[in-house]
């Protein structure tokens, strides 16, 4: 049995423990990564899908691409060795890399008002203000990108409130508003 089959078997046996809040399941793989939630699972896809995004976490690069099983009705984005079911991602309760998959998909489909850098890169930049404000911590912690679920709408709104009060950053506040509206309008169930 290969390592990939072992990890899938591990997941199918439901060997999970509860996350920090006790509200979401987490799974530790034999690779040392930890994933959380219903939107993400181990991938069996090839690396031949259309590439739609790129990011880094620490010293590791990630490419978002459509998974072999992806359809228009049920889009699935492969990131590293995981697949993210886009229809199951809730921006009010998602990991950082689930948001990377979602925003890469939304950019590819023209669902965001994306000009210049990717929507995910913008989200990370805006979110750093909320971290500076003390509203959230550990956003860049490479050990939490698959496991720590966060309310990205609240994080972005916290940053927006700061930006609204500074004339030089007022435009960023409006950009955050557009991003939050896109996420709420298209994704939150």
How does this structure look, described?
- It is a single chain.
- This protein has one domain (about 40-185).
- The protein is about 35% helix and about 20% strand.
- The protein has five helices and eight strands, in the order αββββββββαααα.
- Strands 4-8-7-6-5 form a five-stranded antiparallel beta sheet.
- A hairpin with a 2-residue loop joins β5 (about 50-55) and β6.
- α3 (about 120-130) packs across α4 (about 150-165) and α4 (about 150-165) packs antiparallel against α5 (about 170-185).
- Mean pLDDT is about 80; it is low at about 1-30.
Tally of helical runs:
5
Shape: globular
Strand order across the biggest sheet? 4-8-7-6-5
In total, how many domains does the architecture comprise? 1
> Mean pLDDT across all residues, rounded?
80
Tell me what portion of residues adopts beta-strand conformation. Answer: 15-25%
pLDDT < 50 stretches:
1-32
Distance between the termini: 39 Å
Given the helix and strand composition, which structural class is it? alpha+beta
Largest sheet: 5 strands, antiparallel
Helix content range: 25-40%
Q: Work out the radius of gyration.
A: 17 Å
The strand count comes to 8
Q: How are helices and strands ordered from N to C?
A: HEEEEEEEEHHHH
